[in-house]
Structures are given as structure tokens and as C-alpha cells.
Amino acid sequence: MTNAQHLMLSCLVLVGLAFAVGSRMLFCRVREMRSKRVHPQAAATRAQMSERLQDTQAADNFQNLFETPVLFYALCAMAMAQQRMPDWLVAGAWAYVSLRVVHTLIHCTYNRVMHRLAAFLASFVLLVILWAAWVISGL
Asked: Which residues cross the membrane (predicted)?
């Protein structure tokens, strides 16, 4: 597999993770709203939703998957567009995706904050390093 294919696949795995978490969020919300008999209009805003529902882990994680991962997608897109995809970037991309999967598993299961923070911090620092190294290597 080429480095471009690896970068594309790592992005697709992260997209798949977002779809899986989004599906879980929908399932959890519908189940809880039915069990508590919450009318959908009564939870039309995020504030109303948080007042009425307690199981927000999947929703919180789904939101997380549209924060720093956007910078990962941008880096991969720029690297592929410029055809500048060194081996270390591919390895870093897979490490980043793996850390995001770990973060999601923690967040959507037992949700120990310090474990989740460690996974987030590791992925965030790695992303900063990947960006810095990619920029510097292009100078």
C-alpha cells in the first residue's frame, strides 16, 4: 500500500469512528427519550437536551470527533495534495487514529476522566508534532 493510500485509509477509519459514535448517540438518545417519555420538541436545543437526558457520553464524544480531528484531516489532505507523504507522517497518522479510538472507547464506556485526558493529550501533542514536522520538512 502506498503512503497516500495509508493516509486516506487512516482518514476513513476516523470517519468510520465518527459514524459509529453518531449511530450510538442516536440509539442512546432515542432509547432514553422513550424511557423518560421526552417529546422531541422538548429537547430541541443542546441546553434542553442536557436538562432532560443524562446519557450524553456518546453525544459528547461525537462532538469531540469534530474538533481536533479536523486538523488531522486538513494535514492529510494537504500532504496528499502536495504529494509530500513521508513514512513518519503515515506512522504518525495511524498512531493519531489509534489514540482517538482509545479516547472514544474510554469516553463511551467507563469514562474515567484522567484516562480520557491522557488519551486526548497524547493525540493532541502528537497532532501538534505532526503539523510542526510536516511544515518544517517542507521549508
From this structure: 6-27, 118-136
